[in-house]
Amino acid sequence: MSDSKTARTEDPSRRRRSHHDDEELVHFRIVRFMMESGIKLRMTSVPMATAAIIYHRFFSVCRLQDFDPYLIGMTAISLASKVEEEHLKIRDVINVCYRTRHKDKPPLESQTELADLRQAMASCELLIMRVLGFNVTKELPHKYLLHYLKSLGDWMDASVWNRTPIRDTAWAMLRDLYHGKVCLQHKAQHIAVAVLYFSLLCYGIEVPLNNQAETEWWKVFSDDISEEQIKNIIEQIMDVYDLEKRL
Length: 247
Fold this sequence. Notes:
The protein is mainly α. The protein has helices at residues 3-9, 12-40, 45-61, 69-83, 90-101, 111-131, 142-155, 158-163, 166-177, 182-185, 188-202, 217-221, 227-246.
């Protein structure tokens, strides 16, 4: 078959999937840049999660090709620090993000460039606020996961709980899932349950007496979630890890 014939018969849905996958890789890369910058800025986990959510929400409405994703990510960091009352100086955000993105370049010293970036971020922040309808807050899974881990730790045999890094794994998974849009697609409680379920699954740990109980342990934490929903969230988390392999 000729190349022209192949081109004419190529499945349009396949092209759309390829384009979507390419965009997901870009978003993964930008959020990784944001996380690295956030660590250097000594941001805690909640503002970093809020920054990622602001970024993903913006590009759920706007087209990637219409905006500089690095500028959106940098502005999301600054905006999240205000939302979560962990204020950062704009100059620090600019300098750290610049050095994170341009590791092979000297630090930003030009006052003109610094002023231009400051103005660009100010305009970008207003744009983000307008796009998101001036509502930049979203309930996060962190407080639920903290509570669920404490409760589950009380149920579990202490020796099993202490020698198995379930807590560290759950927190790591929660941090990693913000590289994708799974953080926008489910309730905070459901994400926390799914992360904990996945962590237990990874180490082959079962909750004591769960098979004999009238209510599954995850239903105790969130009575409106099903095991099918949990597995769907886990699949989406695994898709995020698959993106990392493709970078």
